[in-house]
Design goal:
Aspartate Aminotransferase, domain 1; alpha+beta; 2 domains; globular; 12% strand; 5-stranded mixed sheet
Length: 200
């Protein structure tokens, strides 16, 4: 309740009350949505300034476990929306570490559900590095949808063939602890996709 109003207020803060980008600005936002509008606007500005396109990490992770910013940690809805938006755009582990430090400074010690939000963001970056676009559960397996056969073959090798390539776009990881323990599943997938330079 009130999320739409909070988003409108945030929009007003960001752009001001004036119609600075043309008379049909609000109509364009209504047609494409706020997030898409911001992305298109940023892309146009970067092209105008002849900057390289911003790297994005588009990985869908559908694993069990609670991961969110609770109301008693971030009570202000506008701040929460802004934090989620910023977190979704992080592309490096260093940026996640900085984000975590900011959370700790602004809101206090990070609770477990928020720590899990950060670890999911970290896993998205790791998966992106291995060419994995999606991670989900299917029966007693974690299914990885990949784009690079060369990279997934390297993951198979480092897993000692525990990860099995099923076809041209998916690979299956048998879950050591079944599907009962959410955190065990998450740690299983994390250990599989951990970057080489993170290994002891």
């Amino acid at each position: 309740m009130g999320a739409g109003f909070a988003l409108a207020m945030r929009d007003l803060e960001l752009r001001g009350a004036g119609n600075i980008l043309g008379t049909q600005q609000s109509g364009h936002i209504a047609m494409v949505g706020y997030e898409m509008y911001c992305a298109l606007l940023e892309r146009a500005v970067r092209q105008f300034k002849k900057l390289a396109p911003r790297e994005s990490v588009d990985v869908n992770i559908d694993l069990p476990g609670e991961a969110y910013l609770p109301r008693d940690y971030v009570p202000d809805m506008r701040s929460k929306i802004d934090l989620y938006r910023r977190l979704a755009r992080l592309t490096t582990e260093a940026a996640i570490d900085d984000f975590a430090s900011e959370l700790s400074d602004r809101f206090g010690p990070i609770p477990p559900v928020v720590e899990h939000v950060l670890e999911l963001a970290r896993l998205r970056i790791w998966a992106h590095g291995w060419g994995v676009q999606e991670i989900r559960l299917e029966d007693r397996f974690a299914v990885l949808h990949y784009t690079s056969r060369e990279k997934i073959n390297r993951v198979v090798k480092r897993s000692q063939n525990r990860l099995r390539v099923a076809d041209a776009s998916s690979a299956y990881l048998p879950l050591a602890n079944g599907v009962e323990e959410a955190m065990a599943i998450f740690e299983d997938v994390k250990s599989l996709l951990r970057p080489i330079d993170h290994e002891a």
